[in-house]
Specification:
The complex is a heterodimer of chains A (about 160) and B (about 425). In chain A, strands 2-1-3-4 form a four-stranded mixed sheet, with helices on one face. Chain A is an alpha+beta fold and about 160 residues long. Chain A is elongated. Chain A has seven helices and four strands. The two termini of chain A are about 20 Å apart. With about 425 residues, chain B is an alpha/beta fold. In chain B, strands 3-2-1-4 form a four-stranded parallel sheet, sandwiched between helices. In chain B, strands 6-5-8-7 form a four-stranded mixed sheet, with helices on one face. In chain B, α5 crosses α7, α14 runs antiparallel to α15 and α14 runs antiparallel to α18. Classes of the chains: A alpha+beta (about 160), B alpha/beta (about 425). At the A-B interface, α2, α4 and α5 of A face β5, β8 and α14 of B.
């Protein structure tokens, strides 16, 4: 990980702009910022560690505790999706997965997050699962998507995805 | 009349460099390189293109400010942090015609004397990220981007930078802080980014849609553009229709279209019976059905007490409870306030608390006055547009639908049975 971070740092000449790109990689690969990596970044960027921590905790796509789940489900709860029934989509997800928003399922497979507008309001309601957008959702469609993801071969190696 | 979506609307158009080149792609850049920077800026000024991100500042004037600065290096930044709820136009351009943006940024760089540009892209736009990375690579390999562009003395580089889930970063100064690797929090203006921008250097910061107009302005001339649409804010606008409307979607139309035409002719009419419209996303003030004749440009929407913003037209029908929707908007801003200035940080929190109380049957009549006062104070004293406009939908729904609020408060009853009131 540190090697890959160094590549990013180099491409920004170890300037502070490298911080967000580094945090994106860390989130994707490790599911959150660990103390060790935070200290490493602080040293490389010549910043106080608290500065790295404060940036990581400011943005909703980064977490400062490691939270891994195979599928990060981001449900848009902004007005246009709400008008088209995003609350019903969340209800189905909570019920099907047995978790609330902000929680990881016991098998570490699912994490639900309520997010602001995903820029697909013409096809509301929408959600992102990892990097794929699902639109024109209905409760039935959501049940179908979730059951497909649940049924996958469980021996498949977990790819870690950023929150 | 299609300017921004002229390629996207063509059948079989794929948005890769080959398709783009077939549609006059990069001919505007070639033309630009034969002109002087001031000639290019003059053309953009003649077009009277207003910034499409929401503020409506004249694009050519902005470029001229940076061009005149003696401080180097200068930067070009594209605001692709589309986040205003109800806005989904920039994503359409980014995913389907990325070269339109890239070419315009290179032209801007040449005009203002910059050698480096950034596209600040929303973190959640994963697909657009892949597409832009590929498009930048294509542009580099064809010699449109990089060192000595088309064998000229002009070099320009573009970097793609991802945001990370903060609505505030759509605000230009917060975006610049974020681009510098900091928390995205707004700066005090003035100085404006044209003088003190990225790394304190002169910076042109334009929205995706603004840039997307540039190549056609250069190819057809500023005068051609200035004749299209309304005389106050010429050209076309990408209107994003969402909510209770039969055919939601992005519609590129001349800016002299009325709200009624937009909803009826293009949106296929309202789903249900019309109650209100938010013409510029959740930061704008509600319009009631008697205001449907309004022309959808910056000037006329302001005249009726609202704003065009990014062009997010959210249609609301009579099955919706305005107290519930006001609460939703307040929750959004409470979550997204960056926390830097007190009026916005505390104001958004209190507004949410008060509205949650009203929907739970714990409201008092004086709360409504309090909310209006809060809106006024936040408008007057917040550092940036987020706090200044956060309570627009709340204030306007209290003004226009006071009965509904009073019923929640006095009778502990939601007329539409949406708020649980317990």
């Amino acid at each position: 990980m540190k090697e890959r971070l160094k590549q990013i740092l180099n491409s920004y000449h170890n300037q502070r702009e490298a911080l967000l790109p580094c945090l994106h990689l860390i989130q994707k690969e490790e599911g959150g910022l660990s103390e060790e990596i935070a200290l490493f970044l602080a040293k490389e960027l010549n910043l106080p560690p608290v500065e790295v921590y404060s940036v990581a905790s400011f943005y909703s796509m980064f977490t400062v505790k490691q939270q891994k789940a195979k599928y990060i489900i981001r449900v848009c709860v902004s007005l246009p999706c709400y008008l088209k029934g995003s609350d019903k989509i969340l209800e189905v997800l909570h019920k099907e997965l047995g978790i609330n928003s902000g929680e990881v399922s016991a098998d570490k497979k699912f994490f639900i997050e309520e997010v602001s507008c995903l820029g697909a309001c013409g096809k509301a309601p929408v959600m992102l699962i990892n990097e794929t957008l699902y639109d024109n959702l209905t409760p039935e469609k959501v049940r179908e998507i979730i059951s497909q993801l649940k049924d996958e071969n469980s021996t498949e190696e977990y790819s870690q995805t950023g929150l | 009349m299609k300017i921004v979506l002229r390629n996207i609307h063509k059948q079989g158009y794929k948005g890769d460099i080959e398709s783009y080149l077939k549609e006059q792609g990069y001919t505007a850049l070639k033309k630009a390189l034969t002109l002087s920077p001031s000639q290019i800026i003059e053309e953009v000024k003649k077009a009277r293109l207003l910034g499409r991100g929401g503020a409506g500042f004249p694009c050519g004037v902005k470029w001229e400010f940076v061009y005149r600065e003696k401080e180097f290096p200068k930067y070009v930044v594209c605001n692709a942090d589309e986040g205003e709820p109800g806005t989904f136009k920039d994503r359409l351009i980014l995913e389907n015609d990325p070269h339109l943006l890239i070419e315009a940024m290179i032209i801007c760089g040449f005009a203002i004397g910059a050698e480096e540009g950034f596209i600040y892209l929303r973190g959640e736009y994963f697909k657009a990220y892949q597409i832009l990375e590929r498009a930048l690579e294509e542009a580099r390999s064809k010699g449109f981007l990089g060192e000595h562009i088309l064998n000229s003395n002009f070099s320009f580089h573009i970097r793609l930078y991802r945001g990370a889930g903060a609505y505030i970063c759509g605000e230009e100064t917060a975006l610049l802080d974020s681009l510098e690797g900091k928390k995205g929090q707004s700066r005090v203006k003035p100085p404006f980014p044209t003088f003190v921008g990225f790394k304190n250097k002169p910076t042109v910061l334009n929205n995706v849609e603004t840039f997307a107009n540039i190549t056609q302005i250069l190819l057809n001339g500023g005068e051609w553009f200035a004749q299209i649409g309304s005389s106050h804010s010429p050209g076309t606008k990408l209107y994003c229709l969402s909510g209770d409307v039969k055919k939601p979607g992005v519609y590129e139309l001349p800016t002299n279209i009325s709200l009624n035409q937009l909803i009826e002719e293009f949106g296929g009419g309202v789903e249900g019976e019309l109650k209100a419209v938010l013409p510029g996303g959740v930061s704008s003030s509600l319009l009631t059905p008697d205001k449907l004749d309004v022309i959808m440009d910056y000037f006329h929407l302001q005249e009726v007490g609202s704003m065009l913003g990014s062009g997010a037209v959210i249609v609301i029908n009579k099955d919706r409870c305005m107290v519930d929707l006001a609460k939703r908007c307040a929750e959004f801003f409470d979550y997204e306030s960056c926390g830097k200035c007190v009026p916005c940080r505390e104001g958004t929190k209190r507004a949410r608390e008060i509205l949650v109380n009203i929907t739970r049957g714990k409201g008092e009549l004086k709360d409504l006055e309090l909310l209006k006062e809060l809106a006024e104070v936040m408008f007057d004293t917040s550092r940036c547009g987020l706090g200044q406009s956060a309570l627009n939908p709340v204030r306007s729904s209290i003004e226009k639908f006071s009965q509904e609020f009073e019923e929640h408060i006095l009778k502990k009853r939601c007329p539409l049975g949406i708020c649980s009131l317990c």
